[in-house]
Write a structure and sequence with these properties.
alpha/beta; Aspartate Aminotransferase, domain 1; Aspartate Aminotransferase, domain 2; four-stranded antiparallel sheet; 17 helices; binds pyridoxal-5'-phosphate; Kynurenine-oxoglutarate_AT; cysteine-S-conjugate beta-lyase activity
């Protein structure tokens, strides 16, 4: 192979030989030989194309209201901002490394705060690991537990990093879809109508199943799993000795009468569950990138090994700010002054605003029970204008979003990217909007929608 590459190179520069060709021949040979060696690790095969890059770029086009990406465009609460300022301007030692597995005041408050919610006595040193965002917690968990050939059950639609993280660890993702049932007459579609088929879920468990990823409240659908649904997942995990990776980053963002339940709080589940959280989602500060994972020492000790040998340590000042914010919340817990009480009330108003606006122009939102997001059923458009520009094999929702950005000035995320490849065509008639937005952004959305509606009039 190398000999062939060198021969091609000689052929190309042959006519130059005798001029300044000595140096260029050497350079060419060097480049050819360097290129002949495989560069990227095999674990990146199949995951190197990320649709987010394309859609995030489209959002930066002029005059587009960005309802695509999941971050608040309003400030975190004052007490959290003050905590960060205090961390930056106070004790100079907060500029230095702290304990690798978490700044002690943070692991302490996380242990006491979540210990009460999970009904466990948590040891800050053994049951808590602070990570670079929830992303870091998830990556560490997959690396620590998933072996070559292990199967990981992923419930669709799913936060898209679960699949590449499973693959990078050498695992095999096994998908099971939540399926929608029609809304009752006169009722709005709700994320609660999307359910797992218990028989189908049970059929996915095999002797190779190592873990199941459960995301509640779910991104992108906004589904909040009910107690019976969690009990079903819990009993299958126990029956097949499977670890549950519970991604609960939106746990405080639950609306109407619904309630978030941590699967780790169900009988027999603490010992086999990793509960993942995010300060970014908790305090509306996604740029802080502080996350955590809670679990029994028998699981967490392996995550600590990965953490110790990869990132080792998360920024101390951000951890200090999160610690102080949780200390404040612990004092206000359950009271009207608590951010965890106020935030869902405010965000529910934004959700309702968006639902009403979308309906008023004839779009069909599926009302989410929780999270930052709602999805919209665009199957009517698919029937009316099936031939939107784009490659024939490109899922409809991707073409629809590109069309909508260009023609309507609204940015969403196509929902098929939250499904495995074989299922994308089945779920290519939904788009995701984020309603964790300032009133001014929602008003800008209203204006775009009203113009869209006027365009529909004869
Ligand atoms: C379901 C889910 N899990 C994890 C994350 C990552 O959170 P973080 O920003 O703390 O890394 C996100 C972010 O969008 C998410 O939606």
């Amino acid at each position: 192979m190398f000999r062939n590459a060198a021969a091609i190179c000689l052929h190309l520069v042959g006519p130059l030989w005798g001029q300044k060709s000595g140096a260029s021949l050497t350079r060419c040979l060097h480049q050819t030989l360097a290129m002949a060696k495989r560069l990227q690790a095999r674990r990146l095969d199949g995951i190197d194309h990320n649709p987010w890059v394309e859609f995030v770029k489209l959002a930066s086009e002029a005059d587009v209201v960005n309802l695509g990406q999941g971050f608040p465009d309003f400030p975190p609460p004052d007490f959290a901002l003050e905590a960060f300022q205090h961390a930056v301007s106070g004790d100079f030692m907060l500029n230095q490394y702290t304990k690798a597995f978490g700044y002690p005041p943070l692991t302490k408050i996380l242990a006491s705060f979540f210990g009460k919610l999970l009904g466990q006595e948590l040891d800050p040193l053994k049951n808590v690991l602070v990570t670079v965002g929830a992303y870091g917690a998830l990556f560490t968990a997959f690396q620590a537990l998933v072996d070559e050939g292990d199967e990981v059950i992923i419930i669709e639609p799913f936060f898209d990093c679960y699949e590449p993280m499973t693959l990078m660890a050498g695992g095999l993702p096994v998908f099971v879809s939540l399926k929608p049932s029609p809304a009752q007459d006169g009722e709005l579609d709700s994320s609660s109508n999307w359910q797992l088929d218990p028989m189908e879920l049970a059929s996915k468990f095999t002797p190779r199943t190592k873990a199941l990823v459960l995301n509640t409240p779910n991104n992108p659908l906004g589904k909040v799993f009910s107690k019976p649904e969690l009990e079903l997942v819990a009993s299958l995990c126990q029956q097949h000795d499977v670890v549950c990776i519970a991604d609960e980053v939106y746990q405080w963002l639950v609306y109407d009468q619904y309630q978030h339940i941590s699967i780790a709080s169900l009988p027999g589940m603490w010992e086999r569950t990793l509960t993942v959280g995010s300060a970014g989602k908790t305090f509306s500060a996604t740029g802080w990138k502080v996350g955590w994972v809670l679990g029994p020492d028998r699981l967490l000790r392996h995550l600590r090994t990965v953490h110790q040998n990869s990132v080792f340590h998360c920024p101390t000042q951000a951890q200090a700010a999160v610690a102080q914010s949780f200390e404040r919340e612990q004092l206000h817990f359950g009271q009207p002054s608590s951010y965890f009480v106020q935030l869902p009330q405010a965000v529910q108003r934004s959700r309702d605003h968006m639902v009403q606006s979308l309906q008023s122009v004839g779009l069909r939102p599926i009302v989410p029970q929780g999270s930052y997001f709602l999805i919209i059923d665009v199957s009517d458009f698919k029937k009316k204008m099936p031939d939107l520009p784009g490659a024939a094999d490109e899922p409809y929702d991707r073409r629809f979003v590109k069309w909508m950005i260009k023609n309507k000035g609204l940015m969403a995320i196509p929902v098929s990217i939250f499904f495995s490849l074989p299922h994308q065509k089945l779920f290519d008639h939904y788009i995701r909007f984020c309603f964790m937005k300032d009133e001014s952004t929602l008003q800008a959305m209203d204006e775009k929608l009203q113009k869209w509606k006027e365009g529909l009039r004869p």
